Automatic annotation (TrEMBL):
It comes from Paracoccus litorisediminis. PROSITE patterns: HTH_MARR_2. The keyword DNA-binding applies. Keywords: DNA-binding, Transcription, Transcription regulation. One of its GO terms (molecular function) is DNA-binding transcription factor activity. Transmembrane segments: none annotated. This is MarR family transcriptional regulator. The keyword DNA-binding applies. It comes from the Bacteria. It holds the Pfam family MarR. Residues 1-157 form the HTH marR-type domain.
Amino acid sequence: MRASDPLPLPDSGAERLLGVGRMRPQWPFYWISRVNQRYADTLQARLRTLDLDVSRWRVLMSLHEDEQLSVSEIADFAVLKLSTTTKIVQRLAQDGLVTTSPRTNDARVTDVRLTEAGDLLRLRAREHAEAVLASAFGTNDADDLAGLNELLEKVFDRLGDADPASRRGRK
């Protein structure tokens, strides 16, 4: 043990999962982080041609499956801080890509909707995202992708269960 190493923790079961030896190649969060960064960089390069960044794309895609969402709901779906989402929505509104209005039954909530121009841009951006998806998973079948999504969802849920503070909204 090196002097900078922390004291050993109680058995967490990690050795059973990872084995003994080098940690990096077996550590799943190493790969999750690397894949996420490579995905973001690849998508960003493609979206740049549409004058979009990944965060703005996430907001537009969040609005695709619902007619309208609150800024808080968008922040949750897009995995962005509420303050960041608010700024992005304001810029998208200035650009004519979304409209905002107070929710009819609760004026404290701001609802956001795609405009026709926003939906068109979302469609064009989705083509780029689908190309990245095909590049990353083109040789896998739908069952492989479904299995990966199922596993990632379980990990996400377990991390939330392990740290109740992580379930609180992003501020």
